UniProtKB/TrEMBL annotation, chains A, B:
Keywords: Cytoplasm, Dipeptidase, Hydrolase, Protease, Serine protease. Transmembrane segments: none annotated. This is dipeptidase E. Hydrolyzes dipeptides containing N-terminal aspartate residues. GO terms for cellular component: cytoplasm.
Length: 247, 247
């Protein structure tokens, strides 16, 4: 198989405590998109109020120097993807987002644009879940029922955004995040899960993946102990096809 | 419509901090099942290790005075439900549980036994989610894909077990529980959600529903502000058919 042309910036969270929308990743966005990209196609489907969401994203990204079109303002969203120079899928509810991508027949077109045409893809939170092999490790409530949990499959593994370490002082008896990911790996044919703490993001260029941001990540692979990874870590091995399944 | 014969005890959580399995609800279980029930059919499908789970439940419930059969030990689980005197569905992962109930064709049979034959149904956590109209407000990760999010429909509303008040000191930017339930109610045709704090449980007898336990509950109805309810609160109005939808 040819090396996919994919270029992805998968962000754990759009807003970091104490900062504004996309505040903590402004520099990464700029160096990721570079000078060539002029306009970004924003996908606000994960939130209910799409007009307000597009307004927030537009203001922020225009400040960084990019024009923004919101896909919900097009009568033909597939055509909007076809003509886009770069795609940014924002966070919110992952089930709602994925259902909209299926309902509007956008899955194949986005895959084609990113994997074949090489246009840059940015996702934050739900938008990062949507980029992976499936949404099996979203934190969101299943408020709607998408036709499948399979997602865009731009990478052959899962992400858990907003990854949260167990709180040793908690008296709450609901499962910790780690416990929930272990439950996923109790099922057969399940994929590696990269737990991206808030403040972390994964940069993918072709077959190279690098951890960016400041907070590190925790990697869960079925049948193995979880491992800790610092900013700068090379995660390219997660992109190898042999890691697709670990049954 | 005739008054359903249902008798339900829907528990937020099986283990309370500092206590053992079912420790905090032993008295409620005893007075709910009474003297007539001799054996309970335990449903361990929400956990991966069903043998270990059945062993835990059996030890605990035998101490309270009941014999326990685990449904996973029967070659014909539908037949096991048909012959049961009482059903207890334990917690774990709600998606895994619901998928198993569909895969084993148990939905209709459990409904019939509870709503028509009037056998007592106990659920804890995922087992309480499964009793309601849908699992749209589970806290669990979607580790598997059930054929629908519609659940047993023994009551015409949703439950959020392990309900957790917002932590005002948190710097984590993931949605609070309340925010997640609001996201559910942004969708049309969505049902009331009863947030049962750990230590709370709902007793349903026919068309009467009463809050038990010590920690209270928070009720979310689409288009209204959430309301607080103390132990002893009468929730019978949630059982009225007119509350089925609030579009
Ligand atoms: Ca979310
Ligand atoms: Ca659970």
């Amino acid at each position: 198989m040819d090396v996919p042309r994919r270029r992805l910036l998968l962000i754990s969270n759009s807003t970091l405590h104490g900062g504004g929308y996309l505040g903590h990743c402004q520099q990464q966005i700029k160096s990721f998109l570079g000078e060539k990209v002029k306009r970004i196609l924003f996908v606000p489907y994960a939130l209910h109020n799409q007009d307000a969401y597009a307004k927030t994203a537009r203001e922020k990204l225009e400040n960084v120097g990019y024009g923004v079109d919101s896909i919900h303002e097009f009568s033909d969203p597939v055509e909007a993807v076809r003509k886009s120079e770069a795609i940014f899928i924002g966070g919110g509810n992952t089930f709602r987002l994925l259902k909209a991508l299926y309902d509007k027949s956008l899955i194949q077109e986005i895959r084609k644009r990113v994997l074949e045409d090489g246009i840059p893809y940015m996702g934050s939170s739900a938008g990062s879940n949507a980029a992976t092999i499936s949404i099996n490790t979203t934190n969101d409530m299943p408020i709607v029922y998408p036709p499948s949990l399979e997602a865009l499959g731009l990478v052959p593994f899962n992400i858990n955004p907003h990854y949260l370490d167990p709180d040793v002082n908690s008296t709450h008896m609901g499962e910790t995040r780690e416990k929930r990911i272990f439950e996923y790996h109790e099922e057969s044919n399940t994929f590696p899960v990269l737990g991206l703490r808030e403040g972390s993001m994964l940069l993918v260029e072709g077959n190279k993946a690098t951890l960016q941001g400041v907070t590190g990540a925790r990697l869960f692979v079925r049948g193995k102990s979880p491992t800790e990874h610092q900013p700068g870590a090379d995660f390219s091995f997660l992109l190898a096809n042999s890691n697709l399944h670990n049954p």
